[in-house]
Write a structure and sequence with these properties.
This protein has 555 residues and is of the alpha/beta class. The protein has 24 helices and 12 strands.
């Protein structure tokens, strides 16, 4: 049957109008309940990829795990969300018998907690302990046995399927953590700078540091080493064991080729459109998001408060709820740097963490060759005069939907979407096509102060307290006009695992150079891998090797 050109034109106009209506109608989505997600076993693993805005609890329950939402109030009044999850197929007695500690997963900047599961297409709750005992296998053999297991692409679900209890911290600015009950510091609490001073006093009393070793000397060391050029990580210290991925593990990645080819065909354009349909309450949600965006008191925080209050309170809560004396910390990019900052400010936290796993931690940034980074160094954005989120909360979800629809098209995945992701982080290093669902977590609102503190780090080439200006600095930092540096020598935890990338152009090996010198003798392992960077580790075609190593290292 022939269709007149005018009919085709009408059809095209209708489609375009429909897309515009979707984009214009608030983009606030219906959060699916677990009961809806479990109606069909076949649909169970697909639904989380059909909606932007799916909450962590619903996503986990939709895959067959047990999940529960929690709230904690920190010292400066912020209410933070936590989501706990466990695998019902593996009993508590099994976890206890194997000595599996709870795992706290903290997400980075501009993403949410779902980033640890964004590449979990097809994954479901399984008891992998019935299939394999990871304590008796090397990494290559483990990869080989799990080659067809979808959860190997998601660190969180892999840990759950091996019996770990996982806790997801929702950082300030994300949907579960958009409340503040009071706007002052709780009586008896220390400011971040006072916590730093306390940590120094304790280090002096224990003889770990001398009062003559000042922050200024540390800064001079940073600048002097940078002016002479930086050596590679391999040349830093003979005391630090530098581990690469075993040859058998690298070869094992070839076994995943068939799976990757299938994922390349994962074209979900119509699913993405379906997931973008607005909720009936979209106008009310939109107005609430606008109000939240312009509540400056809600966004008046930097990284310092999160390191001083949020991380230690979350760890304390996890230990109380699980009746454990220690837990495992996992941080990526910004949250990796945040974990180090928290260890510096809170000496007691060093004893509460049995292991600290850091994926490309954002610490001592400023030594990379990224062109965007160079522009920021010369002229940092003037965010210091703005107290609020970036992006605004009412824009964030719209961006996620737009990108997820755009990148659901296979042609876009290998071209524009790859380029967008690589523009800030560097070459993709063999990662799989950048599918639309990878954007479901990115673009989450973040305090402008947090971004500006990163820009300051790029200029200083070291991790420092927020720079408010010389006059306010002098008031907040004991008369010092320059913000204090985060001194990694104050860290006493000796179970730090660094996973650095050769591909990242924002967080590079030179950034970690001084940090490794300060932590000499305290590093459990340094895995210098060429298969991921700070963004692509969640979506990379080879990063299952890294995730398997992380899981294996805990047994």
């Amino acid at each position: 049957m022939n269709i007149a050109p005018s009919s085709w034109l009408t059809f095209v106009r209708s489609v375009l109008l429909g897309c515009l209506l979707v984009l214009a109608d608030g983009f606030n989505f219906q959060f699916s309940q677990a009961s809806e997600l479990t109606k069909s076993a076949d649909k169970q693993t697909e639904l989380p990829y059909l909606r932007v805005g799916l909450d962590t609890k619903a996503l986990l329950e939709g895959r067959g795990y047990r999940a529960k939402d929690h709230q904690i109030v920190v010292d400066d009044g912020y209410v933070l969300g936590l989501t706990s999850a466990y695998n019902p197929l593996i009993g508590h007695d099994v976890r206890r018998a194997r000595g599996l500690k709870p795992v706290l997963l903290v997400h980075g900047t501009a993403v949410n907690a779902n980033v640890y599961m964004v590449n979990s297409l097809g994954a479901r709750a399984k008891n992998l302990l019935d299939l394999v005992d990871p304590r008796q296998l090397d990494i290559g053999s483990l990869i080989h046995l799990l080659e067809h297991e979808p959860s190997i692409n998601s660190l969180a679900m892999l840990l759950l399927n091996f019996g770990y209890e996982c806790w997801f911290l929702h950082r300030r600015g994300t949907a579960p953590s958009l409340e503040r009950r009071f706007y002052h510091l709780k009586e008896g609490s220390l400011t971040p700078y006072e916590k730093l001073q306390r940590a120094y006093r304790l280090a002096y009393d224990e003889g770990r540091l001398s009062p003559e070793e000042t922050n200024e000397q540390l800064l001079e060391q940073v600048n002097e080493e940078d002016s002479h050029g930086a050596d590679s990580i391999e040349d830093i210290s003979a005391d630090t064991e530098l581990l690469g991925l075993p040859k058998e593990a690298t070869n094992a990645s070839a076994l995943l080729d068939d799976k990757l080819r299938q994922l390349r065909k994962n074209n979900k354009f119509f699913d993405a459109i379906k997931g973008a349909l607005p909720h009936k309450d979209s106008l009310g949600r939109l107005l609430k998001d606008i109000k939240t965006s312009f509540d400056s008191r809600l966004w008046n925080f930097s990284l310092d408060e999160q390191a001083a209050y949020d991380i230690p309170r979350a760890v304390e809560y996890v230990l109380q709820q699980t009746e454990s004396n220690q837990c495992i910390f996992v941080g990526n990019s910004a949250s990796g740097g945040l974990g180090l900052m928290a260890l510096i400010l809170n000496p007691e936290l060093n004893k509460q963490l049995s292991k600290v796993i850091l994926l490309s931690p954002a610490f001592n940034m400023g030594h990379g060759s990224n062109k965007m980074l160079q522009v920021w160094k010369k002229k940092p954005p003037s965010l210091c005069c703005y107290t609020g989120p970036f992006p605004w909360t009412f824009i964030s979800v719209r961006m996620q939907v737009l990108y997820s629809i755009l990148c659901s098209v296979e042609l876009m995945q290998d071209t524009l979407c790859q380029m967008m992701a690589a523009s800030s982080s560097g070459p993709t290093g063999g990662q799989m096509p950048f599918r639309g669902e990878f954007f479901h977590t990115w673009g989450s609102p973040v305090s402008a102060f947090e971004y500006f503190q990163y820009f300051q780090q790029l200029i200083y080439k070291s991790t420092r307290f927020f720079h408010y200006g010389k006059k306010k600095n002098a008031i907040l930092y004991g008369g010092k006009e320059e913000p204090p540096i985060y001194d990694a020598r104050l860290i006493t935890n000796e179970h730090l695992s660094f996973w650095s990338s050769r591909y990242d152009t924002m967080i590079v090996d030179k950034d970690q150079r001084l940090l490794f010198e300060q932590l000499r003798g305290k590093l459990a392992e340094v895995v210098f891998c060429s298969c991921f960077n700070r963004i692509h580790w969640a979506a990379n075609s080879e990063v299952e090797l890294v995730k398997a190593c992380l899981m294996l290292s805990e047994y």
